[in-house]
Amino acid sequence: MNKGTIVLAAGGTGGHLFPAEALGHELRNRGYAVHLVTDSRAERFAGKFPADEIHIVPSATFASKNPVAMARTAWTLWRGLRTARKLMARLRPLAVVGFGGYPTVPPLLASTGLGIPTLIHEQNAVMGRANKALAKRVQAIAGGFLPEGRGEHAAKIVVTGNPVRPPVLDAAKIPYLASRGEVSFRLVVFGGSQGAQFFSSAVPTAISLLEPALRERLVVTQQARKEDKDRVTSCFAKLNAPADIAPFFTDMADRLAEAHLVICRSGASTVSELSVIGRPSILVPYPYALDHDQAANAAALVAEGGAQVVAQSDLSPEKLSALLASAMNEPDRLETMAADAKKAGKPNATEDLADLVIAIAEKCPIAEYKNKKKSGVQA
């Protein structure tokens, strides 16, 4: 039985789409139709997205102060708003949920203008620009790492954690088994769409500096940009180190489950998946993030003991090599980090977010919802 339609709006990157995908699965399991509004970048993820239909709505961000560029952006946003209004009028959704990124602005603005219940989900410890622009208009703000009870919109914030996809929950069932003695040591390295370039140079060089006995144990999975893939593959071939190099891995959850150590950026989805699965990591926050949100995300996991954080500016190949050697020589420490990471995880985030979405769709006031949650009453 179809209980009605809920629209999810997300920018076309994994960081925005993965939590939306997890929520989509949960809502469909509960009997709701799900539609996705996004941009063309989402095409590589669309095959797995649990949506009855995917809609591309024009959108843009004000990235330049050039008057001509600003005029073009304004025109694109206006077209997107008109398209989104027609779409919402046709779908008549019970609620619209935004997951950040500029493609969420037209559908959320259109929905608030039409009186449709809306909320946003902010994955990071620092709110992104699109969500900041929408925060005053929506009924609720679900937070992954947002501080509860603080800030301008504290009354609207409900900390749900970040939803993770079903493959991540499956991977979380696999216990961490440390690599000891001469057993292979599985290293997973990834950096997202913006952050992989640094690792493409730093990691092969760091591995070349390891003692031969350690280097021979390594089995590497590394994400590299398309333009870097051949160079990185060649570097590992020269080191005689088994390595799987690709711009994108569709089975990343499985690879994380097999990992003994992960070296990566600290986007919100990444930190959430590492903690739910429970894997030790060296986090290198992307230094050019506008609001330094990755550093704040990393701090949340480091505080629990589940990760080490190193600024990119401090991470020479020599230092990275020393960190990797230390990790390979200290299996007991990695076991403890894995357990601490798992303690920080929020595997029920998807269900908690779905509860909030349905409450907003049913026009439950956010203060009432929060009181019910505090008292343990089903909202």
From TrEMBL:
Chemical reaction(s) catalysed: di-trans,octa-cis-undecaprenyl diphospho-N-acetyl-alpha-D-muramoyl-L-alanyl-D-glutamyl-meso-2,6-diaminopimeloyl-D-alanyl-D-alanine + UDP-N-acetyl-alpha-D-glucosamine = di-trans,octa-cis-undecaprenyl diphospho-[N-acetyl-alpha-D-glucosaminyl-(1->4)]-N-acetyl-alpha-D-muramoyl-L-alanyl-D-glutamyl-meso-2,6-diaminopimeloyl-D-alanyl-D-alanine + UDP + H(+)
InterPro entries membership: GlcNAc_MurG, Glyco_trans_28_C, GlycoTrans_28_N
Enzyme Commission designation: 2.4.1.227
Keywords: Cell cycle, Cell division, Cell membrane, Cell shape, Cell wall biogenesis/degradation, Glycosyltransferase, Membrane, Peptidoglycan synthesis, Transferase
Domain Glycosyl transferase family 28 C-terminal: 187-352
Keyword field contains Phosphoprotein: no
Enzyme class of the recorded protein, top EC level: transferase
Domain Glycosyltransferase family 28 N-terminal intervals: 6-141
Main location group: membrane
Subcellular location: Cell membrane
Highest taxon, organism lineage: Bacteria
A family per Pfam: Glyco_tran_28_C
PANTHER family: GLYCOSYLTRANSFERASE (PTHR21015:SF22), UDP-N-ACETYLGLUCOSAMINE--N-ACETYLMURAMYL-(PENTAPEPTIDE) PYROPHOSPHORYL-UNDECAPRENOL N-ACETYLGLUCOSAMINE TRANSFERASE 1 (PTHR21015)
HAMAP family: MurG
Protein name stated in the entry: UDP-N-acetylglucosamine--N-acetylmuramyl-(pentapeptide) pyrophosphoryl-undecaprenol N-acetylglucosamine transferase
Taxonomic lineage of the native organism: Bacteria, Pseudomonadati, Pseudomonadota, Alphaproteobacteria, Hyphomicrobiales
Gene responsible for this protein: murG
